[in-house]
Design a protein that fits this description.
alpha/beta; Leucine-rich repeat, LRR (right-handed beta-alpha superhelix); 2 domains; 6-stranded parallel sheet; 9 helices; 6 strands; about 10% strand; globular; ubl conjugation pathway; F-box-like_dom_sf
């Protein structure tokens, strides 16, 4: 029995076990499998492990998307999540090449995926408060927002949650070192039903304090001299 003799339901079930590249490769073999690839039911969940994956054409983005995860766990993620003054020329060049990749993708999500229920971002060092604000405004059904090691996220994102996160039930801002205890308390007061978690966030040294950076530099020089 040839694979194309299977009915649509069976083919969708088969495709659901494949990664994005395998789905795309299979879809290129015949028109019937291409139609399965293009079925919105196949694309309710998307997981990405690198900004480069966001630029490929091996997935579909549309109203069927409910769960989105962009988690950059490679060793190189570190270059996007350290202070600019600590980066060498290679690290700065690498960051610049990916600076707008995730943000542009999320803006596309805002325009095409109004039914999004869950968004997880980890190691996305260039994502800004404004980008998260747009997601909250355009995806009113969002119930879970998990941000980890996103260094440009500040209290403005927390404020956006209080204003536009009416459906939100879970908020994680772990290792987001530029938010404050005051911002967290505001969320707790304004949104008592939200399960808030902020591991190693408000107590970390923020990027936005140049005087503290200078102190760290001086301390580092002293250690080197010793």
């Amino acid at each position: 029995m040839h694979i194309t003799q299977l009915n649509r339901e069976c083919l969708l079930h088969l495709f659901s076990f494949l990664d994005k590249n395998s789905r795309k490769n299979l879809a290129e073999t015949c028109h019937k499998l291409l139609e399965v690839f293009q079925d919105p039911l196949l694309w309710s969940l998307l997981n990405f492990h690198s900004p480069v994956e966001l630029k490929k054409d091996n997935f579909l983005l549309g109203p069927a998307l409910k769960y989105l995860s962009i988690c950059w766990y490679s060793e190189r993620v570190k270059v996007c999540n350290i202070e600019d003054w600590m980066k060498n020329s290679f690290q700065k060049d690498f960051c610049n090449r990916h600076e707008n990749t995730v943000s542009d993708f999320l803006l596309d999500v805002c325009n095409r995926c109004p039914n999004l229920l869950s968004l997880t971002l980890s190691g996305c060092g260039h994502v800004t408060d404004d980008c998260i604000l747009q997601v909250l405004k355009n995806c009113p059904n969002l119930k879970s927002l998990k941000l980890e090691n996103c260094v440009r996220i500040t209290d403005h994102t927390l404020e956006a949650v209080t204003l536009h996160g009416g459906s939100l039930r879970t908020l994680h801002v772990d290792f987001c070192r530029n938010i404050t205890q005051a911002g967290l308390e505001r969320v707790r007061q304004k949104c008592p039903s939200v399960m808030l978690r902020a591991e190693r966030s408000a107590n970390m040294i923020p990027d936005s304090k140049p005087e503290k950076k200078l102190m760290l530099e001086k301390a580092s020089r002293k250690l080197v001299q010793l």
